[in-house]
Known about the structure:
By secondary structure, the protein is an all-alpha fold.
Amino acid sequence: MLDAAFFRRWLVSAAALVDREAERLTELDSPIGDADHGSNMQRGFAAVAAVLEKEEPDTPGAVLMLAGRQLIATVGGASGPLYGTLLRRTGKALGDTAEVSEQQFADAFRTGVDTVAALGGAAPGDKTMMDALVPAVDALGESFDAARAAANEGALATTPLQARKGRASYLGERSIGHQDPGATSSALLFDALAETAGGEGGPR
Ligand code: ADP
Ligand code: MG
């Protein structure tokens, strides 16, 4: 079972990973965007880590809802409201129980991803974070490691795609040949999730 402390550890480790990879995320956002994805994610997740340490919400749902609200409040780019909605909606779907199963988390995350799809209007193949999030949530019921692999594969597979949503879509065919920054940051979130789960000596 996964408790509030697990979700806090996940998001704090995601913040550290985003911080380490911020330069790369911004580099990916340079040719097909406005070179701010790394700094957006860095600022947003630093604020998430800070608020979680200060408030220590005591259910998984409360952790994710607080983190989502914080991302929406601190990130100006498209990715802030999208990731913020993802975490907030996932948290809301988890309700107020003290512990959730991995399957409950997978189901709630599916609700979150569906809400992001409705909000952003993007589907897999449009060269956005959905190209990592959808395969990851499909694999999440299997294991955190499977979700991590699927997210990373999905992020790499955005390179040959032409962007149909977001800022990169303005470039038309010139968006081809570049990996999507948002799909890459989504993969980082799943790297952090698998590491958080693996580091506990559990079955994953
Ligand atoms: P901005 O594009 O406002 O500068 P960021 O650079 O922080 O915001 O984030 C860009 C990323 O957001 C893209 O790489 C893409 O993955 C994601 N994105 C943009 N628009 C959408 C959308 N409509 N649906 C899903 N993801 C999107
Ligand atoms: Mg940008």
